[in-house]
Each structure stands twice: as structure tokens, then as C-alpha cells.
Amino acid sequence: MMTAGAPALRVLTAGLLTTVQDGGRRGLQRYGVPPSGAADTEGLWLANLLAGNPPDAAVLEVTGRGPRLEVACTSVRVALGGDADAVIEAEAGPPLPAWSAQTLRRGQRLRVGTVRSGLRCYLAVSGGLAIDPVLGSSSTYLRGGIGGMSGRALRAGDELPVRLDEAPPGPDLRLDAVPATASSGEPLRVVLGPQDGLFSPAALASLLASAYTVSPRSDRVGLRLVGPPLPATTTEIASDACVTGSIQVTGSGQPIALLCDRGTTGGYPKIATVISVDVPRLGRLRPGQPVRFSSVDVAQAEHLRRARARFLNAMHERLRPR
After folding, report:
1. What does pTM read for this prediction?
2. Cβ(81)–Cβ(124) under 8 Å?
3. Are 102 and 111 in contact (CB under 8 A)?
């Protein structure tokens, strides 16, 4: 509950789908609670890096087109993790660049327009959003109606509480090497299984040789993919655990790549699992975008995870004053 005069960002317009997300809920999947959290964890991590926050701090996840926000505190530093048309209204200066931070004063308005690269971007606030956690996280789980702003997307008239009334001292920062945000066209890497034995060699070959298209029916639960069918020897199995990146195949033979709001168990066979280093790319894919897959083994997946962690940790060294 906000108190009158508490520091905040006032939501003038909400955008297509803007939600509060953080690093997600951990340790609750055995109770049927999905992790939720940012669909693109790298965008979350880098936005918080620019803002000087812990990597899992709560931010705004912007999907497609973002909100208009008015500063209702003395000052606030915002950081844009991603590439979007972001401008400070009534200012003659240039737009807020991708992967950079900007200090705003009371009454100034920030408009986050269309996400240019990928599907989502992240807006962090220095000090963080003052959103009470639910089950250990401030993330919005839309289907469950918990977390964030009463379990829903932002609406016009919302007041987003921020922890600091004034931006911390120091310069606004930028990244001097902009990371890739959209799919490069390279295949998403998968480890086959755990139910790959229920699929014929022809179906496995088709998964790795065909192009699939992201359906407009996709959401934070999963990416529905349209392409050559992948028939299994059975369309149902005893429900077992799902993870973010699991590729389920429905009775129609069409695959679904599960995302952060997925169910924790499922009864469709899983032909493969997107490796952890490529899961953030799932969250960047737009409807209509083509997707291909390639197969790696567990040892390769772990090697790639470690290499990506080293790359992201080195981003601290790429921070520069604007």
C-alpha cells in the first residue's frame, strides 16, 4: 500500500503489456508455482547493472510497446535494458539510447515506445521498485494473479512505488558494447529429451532440419511454433516435471517451447530442451519470426553456460559515463 506523497512513477499510459518482473520465484515448483520472472534474464541483468541494482531486482518488463511514466519524486535514475524508442517528453535532447541510464526530475515524463530489437526490453530504477514480494518474489504471475501490481499488467493511473526519493550520486552510465538482443538467426541449441525416445528418427531429424515460425498465440507461458509436425508414438505421458525451455509436442504434432509462466508439470512428451544459455533468446522472439534448432550434448551446454557467464560478468568493465 502506497502512502500519500511516497516516491513513485505515475503511469499515464500502460503500453501493450508492461509488468513488474524480477529474478523469479525459486523453490516452489513442487507446489505448482512457476518461476515467472523476466522472460529475458539477460535484459533484466543488464538493466539492473546500468541502474546499480542487484541483478535480480524488480524492473518493468515491456512487451512490444511501453508505457508513459511521470516522475513523482525528487529525481530518479532509470536504465533501459534493451533497444526501444524511449524519449523524454518536452525535451529537445536526443532519445534515451539503448543500454543506458538517465536521471529524470520531478514532473518529467518518459515515453517508452516500440521495442525495435526483439520483443521485450527492461526498465530499471536505481534503488529498485518498492513492490512487496509474494512467495519470495515481486514478479507478476498473470495467470495466478499474484505479484507485481495486484497480479496484473500495469494500467493507466497506477503509481509505481520506488525505494529512493532522489537518484543516487554519480554519473548516468551506458554500455560501450551493446549486446545482441534479437535472434541472430542462428539455431537455438537443444539437448534432446527427456522423451525423445517416443519420437521416430524422422521426427527428430525434422526438428533439427526444419524452420518453425513463432505463432501469434504465444505468450509468457510458451512459444507456440508452427511447422512440420513431429508425431510421437503417444500423445500423452504420465505428467512429469517441466522446465523453462522444455519443448513439448501436442497431439497436433506442433511443438511448444515453454517459458517462465509455464506449468510445473505436463503430460505431453518433451522432444528436447533449450539449453539455459539460449533460454533468454526465447523471450526475445517475436510472432512470425523463424526458429531453427540444433543439438548439443550436456557437456557442450555446460561449457556454453560458463562462457556466457564470463561474458556477462565482463560487462561491468564496459560501463562508461554517458
Report:
1. 0.95
2. yes
3. no
Other Cβ atoms less than 10 A from the Cβ of 138: the count is 26
Q: How far is CA 314 from CA 57, 99, 177, 263, 281, in A?
A: 19, 15, 11, 34, 20
Which grid cell sits at 143? 495467470
> May I ask the CATH architecture of the domain 188-312?
Beta Barrel (2.40)
154 is written with which cell numbers? Answer: 500495469
* Cα distance between residue 126 and residue 102, in whole Å: 10
Cβ-contact 188, 291 below 8 angstroms: yes
Domain boundaries, the chain: 8-172, 188-312
Per-residue pLDDT in tens (0 to 9) along the chain, 322 residues:
445 579 999 999 999 999 999 999 999 999 999 999 999 999 999 999 999 999 999 999 999 999 999 999 999 999 999 999 999 998 777 889 999 999 999 999 999 999 998 999 999 999 999 999 999 999 999 999 999 999 999 999 999 999 999 999 999 999 987 766 545 678 999 999 999 999 999 999 999 999 999 999 999 999 999 999 999 998 889 999 999 999 999 999 999 999 999 999 999 999 999 999 999 999 999 999 999 999 999 999 999 999 999 988 899 999 999 8
